[in-house]
Amino acid sequence: MSLLALHGVSKSYGALRVTDGVSLAVAEGETLGILGPNGAGKTTLFNLISGDVRVDAGRVEYAGRDVTALAPHQRCRAGIGRSYQVPQPFGAMTVFENLVTAACFGGRQAEREAWHTAQEVLQETGLMPHANKPAGGLTLLNRKRLELARALATRPKLLLLDEIAGGLTEHEASELVSELRRIKARGITMIWIEHVVHALLSIADRLFVIDFGRKLAEGAPQAVMQDEAVRRVYMGVEA
Ligand SMILES: Nc1ncnc2c1ncn2[C@@H]1O[C@H](COP(=O)(O)OP(=O)(O)OP(=O)(O)O)[C@@H](O)[C@H]1O
């Protein structure tokens, strides 16, 4: 069964149609990679799934339920967790406090449970040595880890990752991919927008390529990367 299904979702800003009738289904346990040129509408698609932005038309179904009218916090509590392209922690709070806050408010966990979750997520994401540091002072890698950790603390069934490897060194990106592999092995469904293609290819079960707000290609990673339209639009390779 699909955990997430988008049915003809569209969004415009003024005359600009940023999402144009996108339909998409993601199976439980699947890792879907999203690719597309800058400005193609990838983050907007996440905003429509998480509820940060409302659709103009179409429907968003999650776990068999129509969530199109739900607010972001309701979708989060239903199990849709997300990271943001630009990490957005509470900078003056410690890493641990950020995670407890995410678990309490995003995951609706009681205080004791939230503390337990925060400990687990610190361990899982390698942030334990930084638990008591203010989030605002972290390195880029650790800010990215915290972004992932905050989403995990809400105990998502569906995890939306927006360019989590962007700006990292090769070594840092591969550490992050190892963490994502462990998350995937726990059965969490993931949708990952990423320009670091080799990182994405090392974990994605399927790719979905967007251009001008529309689906350009979808399917098995190797087949999609060989697709002529994808090579022309995304990689600038002449067909
Ligand atoms: N709130 C907004 N108001 C007006 N235009 C917007 C808004 N949000 C996004 N856009 C425009 O919609 C288009 C798609 O933006 P979006 O951030 O979804 O693209 P993207 O594929 O994620 O790009 P990138 O790879 O650069 O992150 C862009 O032209 C952007 O300027």
TrEMBL record:
InterPro entries: AAA+_ATPase (IPR003593), ABC_AA/LPS_Transport (IPR051120), ABC_transporter-like_ATP-bd (IPR003439), BCA_ABC_TP_C (IPR032823), P-loop_NTPase (IPR027417)
Protein name stated in the entry: ABC transporter ATP-binding protein
CDD domains hit by this protein: ABC_Mj1267_LivG_branched (cd03219)
Pfam family, one: ABC_tran
Keyword Cell division assigned: no
GO biological process: D-alanine transmembrane transport; L-alanine transport; L-isoleucine import across plasma membrane; L-valine import across plasma membrane
GO cellular component terms attached to this protein's record: plasma membrane
Domain ABC transporter: start-end pairs: 4-237
Single Gene Ontology MF annotation: L-phenylalanine transmembrane transporter activity
Lineage of origin: Bacteria, Pseudomonadati, Pseudomonadota, Betaproteobacteria, Burkholderiales
Origin superkingdom: Bacteria
Annotated keywords: ATP-binding, Cell membrane, Membrane, Nucleotide-binding, Transport
